[in-house]
Every structure is written in C-alpha cells, then in structure tokens.
Amino acid sequence: MQSTPVSSTTDDGVVPPAVPAVVPVVPSASAAASATFERRRAVGAAAEQALALYRAIFVNAPEAIAIVDTNGRYLEQNAAHLELIGYSDEELRGQTPAVHLGDTEFQTIVAELVRTGTCHRECVSRSKAGREMTIELSAFAVREADGEPVCYVGVKRDVTSEKQSAVALQHKFEELQAIYRMSNVVSRAGALEEIYNVALDELQRTVHTDRASVLLYDDARVMRFKAWRGLSAAYRRAVEGHSPWSPDDPDPQPVLIGDVRADPHLTELLPVFEREGIVAIGFIPLVSSGRLLGKFMIYFDRPHELSAPELQIAQTIASHIAFAIARKADETALRESWQAHRLLAEAGALLNSSLDVEDTLASITRLAVPAAFRNEE
Prior knowledge:
By secondary structure, the chain is α+β, with helices and mostly antiparallel strands. The protein folds into three domains: 61-158, PAS domain (Beta-Lactamase), CATH 3.30.450; 166-323, GAF domain (Beta-Lactamase, 2-Layer Sandwich); 333-376. The chain has helices at residues 29-60, 79-85, 89-92, 98-101, 103-116, 160-188, 192-206, 233-239, 270-276, 308-353, 357-368, 370-376, and strands at residues 2-6, 19-23, 64-68, 74-77, 118-126, 132-143, 149-158, 211-217, 223-229, 255-257, 280-288, 291-300. Strands 4-3-7-6-5 form a five-stranded antiparallel beta sheet, sandwiched between helices. Strands 9-8-12-11-10 form a five-stranded antiparallel beta sheet.
C-alpha cells in the first residue's frame, strides 16, 4: 500500500497537518508474468535434470538397451547393446531387431507386445560377427497419457554362459547317474547280457542315441554283435566283422563320424547305412588291461557331432562294460582252474585207493565229464 497526503482549511483559517490517505496498490501485469515465467523455468529445469538423469542411466547401463518405434524400427541403442550385437547406430537405422533375432522370433515378440504390452523370453540371437548366443529379453511399451504406445524399449542380457554351465551340470549329473547304475549292475549282475542291456539303456538315455550296439571279438578275432537296439538283421549281417581298429591295436581311440555320407572310408557301406536310415555313427573301443575286447556302436538318424561331455559318458559306460567282460573272463578262468585242480586231486586219490584199473578209470571219467553220466541216468 502507498500513502498520499490529504489537507483541508478550518473555519478560522488554520491549516491542520496533512493526514495520509491509504490507497491500495494493484500488482502490475509484468510482475505476474515474471512470476509465472520463473515458476515455469523452475519446472523446466527440473524436467531437464530428470531427462539428463534418465539419459545418463540409458547410456551408461551395463545391460544392453535399445528403443524401437511403433513400427519396430530402431531409434537408439546404448553402448552395451552395440557391444552385444555388434551393429553400429548407422547400420541399425531403418532396421528391426529381426536383423539379429530372425523374422520368426521377431514377429513372435511383436505379437506378444501388441497383445500384452510386455514380453519376457529367451531368444537365440546372432551378432554381426556371426556369434550365436542366448539372450534374455525384457521388452515393454512406453505409452502416451491416452494409452497409445509411443515406442518400445528392449533390455537384453547375454545368458549364453549360464545356459552352457547349466547344460554342463546336467551332463555331469547324467554321467554320475550312469556311473551309479552301471556300477550297481556290474556288481550284482549274473550274466553279461544284463550288463549289455543296461549299458544300451544308459547310452540312449544320456547320449541320446537313436540306436546302439555292443560287439565283441570271438575266438576267430571277428567282431560279433552281442546286444543291439533298433538294428535290423540285414544290417547286422552286412556290417558284422567291420572295425576301424585291428585286434592288436595297442591304443585304439574313438572314431566319430558326424555324417557317413561325407566319409570316404565308408563308401562301400553307404548303401547299407541308407537302407537302415543311419547318418552319423560312433565307434567306442572296449579296452581292458591294454587289450581290445570289442566296441560300442552309437547311431544317429541325422548328422550329429558328438560333444565332449557325450563322448565322456560313452567312454565311461564302455569302461564299465570292459571291466565286466574282463571280470567274467577271470571268474571263468578261475573256476576252470579250480575244477582242474579238484579233478587232479580226486583222480590222484582214486589211483591211490584202488588197484582195479578199469574201475578207477571209470571213476576218473565220471569226475571229468559228470554231465554226460547224469544225462545217461
């Protein structure tokens, strides 16, 4: 408020002191506008600060982040995204994520985003350099106040190593289970046939073969089928006796053929493989005490490169079979040796106890071939 002096004259001509009058002051339009401007500037500064903060988060985030428009075309990516897929900003301009995910995967993601506004999944991605990886994708829509999408944001994380570790752990678990089951059957089985059957079961369970077989050398040093799964009689007749090693090979190694059609050493057997529907094979030697006993065969109906964990499991199973075969052979030799010593001892006792030669010889014959006399009885 401002004060304005007010004066008047009395009847006797005396002028009293001025009395200030109170007059209200209305703020000018320019002052109001200035206040509004200041308020807006403060709001704008806060918005700019927030925008700068969000951009710093986007640029410096360790996760790969990319923004695409409503047509799915790239608008921007951060440094982590560039490092992940290898495409520069210029190379991504006008492109969709199909450039590294493939059309089918990209369309699946688009459909889920349109339907729900979010998408969480694992995808197979291929970088510009050709590296195949598994990525974990989290994508979501950014919307206007009216709910219409403005753009889509995708956050990607390379989980290839994690997946590989999980697969390796699963292989190790399967190997331990196979070792346990093979050890159990080897320790209690009465016949080799039971061990062969369990071994074939374990091969198909852990190595995921389509077929499998066990072959051993016979007395004529020819590989003969002892057990098999999914092989026709015609196939067995055609390949019996075939081996990539000689019987005296001091250090036979596994032979793995990912595609028989590409191996010149198997040209003669190609018609046999084709009739049987076999495309990939593996020869796993059965070795005990440095001696080749036979082989494990694994078969696949399509091209297949055996992985290191798969080969390790197959060799572990093979070692158990070789041990069982050798143990059975030792048991047979020990039993025969014991029977021979028993025969000699009893024959000696008979010779010392009787002077009747014919009766003694008959008794010794009964000791040597008791089964024959039991059959006659």
